[in-house]
Amino acid sequence: MKSFAAAWLTSGARLQFRRGSAELGRRIRRMPHELIYFHRADDPYSQLMVQVLPDLAARFDVTIRPLVVERLPANMYPDPQRFEAYSILDAARLARLYGLGFPSSATVPDRLAVGMANRHLAKLQDDPNFFSVAEEVGAALWQQDIKAVRTLCVAADIDEKILQDNEGLLRTLGHYASGNVFYGGEFYPGLDRLDHLERRLNRLSLGDSEVHFELTRLWRYDLENLDRSVSGRTLELYFSVRSPYSYLGLHHAADLAAATGLRLKLRPVMPMVMRGLKVPPAKAGYILHDTAREARLENLPFGRIVDPLGHATKRAMALGFRLAEDGEDLAFFKAFTRAAFAEGIDGATDGGLSRVLERAGISPSKLSGAMSADIWGPLAEKNRQMMLMSGSWGVPTFRIGNETLWGQDRMWAIVDALRQH
Fold it and tell me: What domains, with CATH codes, occur in the chain?
């Protein structure tokens, strides 16, 4: 019953109902189509967003209300330092992809300058020139040009309550990250999700019927241009069988390997919750919604979920590590994650695991050959330590050569790394 309830909660029908209700409420209140954008000066993704949102406003019959935030919940990221360092590198990659300005040599900006920038921009929230000013201030900030930041940011005597109210609104609406657009009950964080917003606005006949922010999804079209030498190279994938994003990433990586001849090396790790870390409800709720949204666009089934937390995960790890010895781990983990996130199959039972093995084309008799915990446990921990040493903190993480890439939506960057090397 829980899997059917999850299927409804993540269904396209429910999403369309929620969107329809939001639109009806807007019409009743006779409100304009307003996007709320949450900006933070030291967020590299925000620096990209202020460069593209004016164009979005010009293409669509919408208004954008910027709100500046500064203090975000620290418990949303298990390793804030690694996330901060990675996000700077990732923003530089995205900037190159979309032809935006962001220094490739950027480092964590000066904290005092950040505070000055946030307060100056908070004072300009209602200024029609907010985005151009935010871009200029951000450019100076990311170039470590403290003198320019001081020149641009006049003494901002603002009530700190402005920032606190903006941060409170972000939490109340149901999210935790900056560089984020909210419209009609949904969040669209960063460039990676603006194509969902474009499609939604186009269905409301508010725009030019075009989608400009889908470059990260076009990686499959680049595969035919890859040099044959990529065949035989190794792509490492650190993943968790309990992570819905890992489910998507695993299937994308399998498609990439099949199309290019890449060798896919799977490195399973234990879920963070089973390592004593917590996932705040706001984050868990957004991940579920976002995975469903991404899966629909990528034509992957999703929704009939039986959470593999606990015994099911341990059994999957015990069996998966053993099957890796016979080269059958990819087929198994693909089938297991699909069963857990799309088919409502309980991997904690012998019957459920037998069905998974059959769907993977593996004899159910191998169920009896699962590896003992004292063997697979250290292997899983070794994988986690390797992931941390690579500069990442969570799953899914990809490693190709010296490049570390986080997220199921970074296949384009993997293809780019293959092309570069």
Answer: 32-216 (3.40.30.10), 219-420 (3.40.30.10)
